[in-house]
Write a structure and sequence with these properties.
- The structure is a single chain.
- This protein is of the alpha/beta class.
- It contains eleven helices and eight strands.
- Helix 9 links the parallel strand 7 and strand 8.
- Helix 6 crosses helix 7.
- The two termini are 19 Å apart.
Length: 268
């Protein structure tokens, strides 16, 4: 089987630009890859995008503000992110899609699949998708100037410091200098998105009804396997696949095993 070609483009969604990677041919089943907080779309998918493109028409956008050519939303909120995905699919003329999200992108994919069951035919959650259910007063405190500044500064350190990344990523050869540079640039978009997820009211519909595959790196120390097992209990008919010798980014750490896990599910 020949490899598909990877292309890049910039879409215009109203006033916002979106940097987009694409592989595969029109006419193949359509797949949308939603990255997490650790870098831009290329950082997440460069080892798997072309391989997926041999069987699917795959789109991998950068999240708003995560790339120089992907404009940030004026106000980041969960409803705005759902609308952003909606507008992206509309602009790409996609009526039916398989959604694949990783880490914080998995939670966005879960919420979108739950609210749009007529659009999302299949859902893959990679190392994320669990809902942090905070009491209302805690959500209010996270918007208080002094408290929120301290909290989000600590979260940034816990996720983005080199020490934290060496715990989150099991295969250390992933942590190249280029990876760190892309991560640093993309992190400007991550904290507003994290703030929205932790402080916005949760969507009224949270549970997808489409077939769902949960993929988890067995050595993930950022999102422990217990979170994946909780997702398995929450989502009807979900199935869980563990990737050996992988941490929080199995698509980078074990790309062949990742493709072997995801492709049969999307092919069904």
């Amino acid at each position: 089987m020949s490899l598909s070609r990877l292309t890049t483009s910039t879409l215009q969604l109203g006033e916002l630009r979106v940097h987009l990677l694409e592989a595969g041919s029109p006419g193949l089943p359509e797949v949308l890859l939603i990255p997490g907080g650790m870098g831009d779309a290329e950082s997440h998918w460069h080892k798997t995008l072309v391989a997926l493109g041999t069987s699917f028409h795959v789109y991998a956008p950068d999240l708003p503000g995560f790339h120089n050519e992907s404009d940030a939303l004026k106000k980041v909120s969960l409803p705005q992110m759902m609308q952003w995905i909606n507008e992206l699919l509309r602009t790409l003329n996609i009526e039916k899609v398989a959604l694949v999200g990783t880490s914080i992108g998995a939670l966005l994919a879960r919420f979108y699949a739950a609210r749009s069951p007529a659009v999302v035919e299949r859902l893959v959650l990679v190392g994320g998708g669990g809902i942090t259910k905070l009491p209302g007063i805690a959500r209010m405190l996270l918007n208080a100037p002094g408290i929120s500044q301290v909290f989000y500064r600590d979260r940034y350190r816990r996720i983005y410091s080199r020490e934290a990344l060496s715990r989150s990523i099991y295969q250390q050869d992933v942590l190249t200098e280029e990876f760190f540079q892309r991560l640093k640039r993309a992190s400007e978009g991550f904290m507003p998105l994290l703030r929205a997820i932790l402080s916005d009211p949760l969507p009224p519909v949270q549970t997808p009804t489409c077939p769902t595959l949960i993929i988890w790196g067995k050595e993930d120390r950022l999102a422990p396997l217990s979170e994946g097992r909780q997702l398995l209990r929450e989502i009807p008919s979900a199935e869980l696949v563990l990737i050996e010798q992988a941490g929080h980014m199995p698509m980078l750490e074990q790309p062949d095993l990742f493709i072997a896990a995801i492709k049969p599910f999307l092919d069904r």
